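Quick log. Single chain, no ligands specified.
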Amino acid sequence: MNNHLFQSHLKTFGFLSIDENNKQLLNSTDYQSYIRVLYVNQGCQLISDFTEFEVKTPSLFFIGPNQHLHVKQMGQQPGHFIYYNRDFYCIQIHDEEVACDGLLYNNVYNMPQVTLQTDEANFYNYLYSQISDEFALNDTSLEEMVRTYLKQIFIKAVRSWKKQNLEKELVNNNNDLAFFRKFTVLVDAHYTQKHTVADYADMLHIAPKTITNKFKKLNLLQPNEIIKNRIVLQAKRLLVHTKMSAKEISYQLGYDDPAYFTRLFTVKTGESPTSYRAKFLQA
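-> predicted structure:
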């Protein structure tokens, strides 16, 4: 395994070449706190926050520090793994540079995959080789050069992600795309306190009906369902990865009435929080 690591003050950037032999390392908690970019090839099987992906063509996966990643099987060819922290590069601060917040990361739709055509895969393989060369060179400009390559990955991936996941009308309308991203980011940041479309309408200074109409026009899942889905996703994480009770989870997600939260979870998943936890842990 080729392991490169840059650390300076609070900044961390790591780069690994990966294959089936170090799958266990990817699934460990060592990288849980980092922002991650995973490049895998055909044949890879992985789970990102309860969604299973079977990779049929080279793909990128963008995994945030609050997301759980489990690789069941690596691809037929070796892949690449980047991990870094916000001190090294913060996509929120540099949003105008890469515009990936709410799309590649902090996306309430939980769509972390970008599939690659042959020419695109060649482009990313070139970038990864350049990153590896930078570590071998170990020049004083390494940090900035590596950050430049990371931004290229984001910019290129955002273009592909939009074409693969959004309606053509939304891709070509910058105003609607900006609204989509802003709403997504707001929900991901405030879902534990704000549970209604009206809450987000207040933050956006528009009428709740305007939000609903925008999503309907663009053939997107309705905003009320987006909010509920984000709440339920976090509930699943806490049920599976912590020992918190359903009542404790209810309070953490902003519900004073645990019975109401249980009903919401049951409607969205088809089973109670207790049953969901038991079923998942038995699997």
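The CA atoms of residues 186 and 250 lie 20 Å apart.
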